[in-house]
């Protein structure tokens, strides 16, 4: 990729990525506070200030290294997790489901928003490629975060949702995986298991759902 093309790609994705990770983490904090845990609020993490959620390694260094190492074929990164004390929640096992679900749900809502913005821009006759590509990037980035974070293995949100849904005995077994979950997920990502059997099917479903949600708006602008 030429330097100018790389700079343009970074600029197109910068705003969607910042919004995606910031709102995702803030959503966890808002949900935790709603259900009784003020840890994130006391640490100043319930905020839309992206600087509070950026992890220097996971948000900046790792994605850049992977981008150049794989010529853009594989990207991965993470934000600084919002601290949640599940034992402070009013009903820990039940409420942890909603706290964990808040992040991916916020990404799906953002994907719908970017899709709506794309429809409005196209409907008003805007031909500026930069803004149209930014909207498409916003949909893609948020659907990736939505689908990936729902993978049912702790410490990902999907794993915590599953822990909350399972009976106590099975939930405790799955919860013990959390210290090693990140490395297991990474191994599955590198092996192509997550992409082939989870991300692609779930993202395809996500795109179909967004098309269905936005169909009335598309019909209005025809």
Automatic annotation (TrEMBL):
<keyword id="KW-0812">Transmembrane</keyword>
<dbReference type="InterPro" id="IPR044537">
    <property type="entry name" value="Rip2-like"/>
</dbReference>
<feature type="transmembrane region" description="Helical">
    <location>
        <begin position="97"/>
        <end position="123"/>
    </location>
</feature>
<keyword id="KW-0479">Metal-binding</keyword>
<feature type="transmembrane region" description="Helical">
    <location>
        <begin position="57"/>
        <end position="76"/>
    </location>
</feature>
<keyword id="KW-0482">Metalloprotease</keyword>
<keyword id="KW-0645">Protease</keyword>
<keyword id="KW-0472">Membrane</keyword>
<protein>
    <recommendedName>
        <fullName>Peptidase M50 domain-containing protein</fullName>
    </recommendedName>
</protein>
<dbReference type="InterPro" id="IPR052348">
    <property type="entry name" value="Metallopeptidase_M50B"/>
</dbReference>
<keyword id="KW-0378">Hydrolase</keyword>
<feature type="transmembrane region" description="Helical">
    <location>
        <begin position="143"/>
        <end position="168"/>
    </location>
</feature>
<dbReference type="Pfam" id="PF02163">
    <property type="entry name" value="Peptidase_M50"/>
</dbReference>
<comment type="similarity">
    <text>Belongs to the peptidase M50B family.</text>
</comment>
<keyword id="KW-1133">Transmembrane helix</keyword>
<feature type="domain" description="Peptidase M50">
    <location>
        <begin position="137"/>
        <end position="191"/>
    </location>
</feature>
<keyword id="KW-1003">Cell membrane</keyword>
<dbReference type="InterPro" id="IPR008915">
    <property type="entry name" value="Peptidase_M50"/>
</dbReference>
<keyword id="KW-0862">Zinc</keyword>
<feature type="transmembrane region" description="Helical">
    <location>
        <begin position="180"/>
        <end position="199"/>
    </location>
</feature>
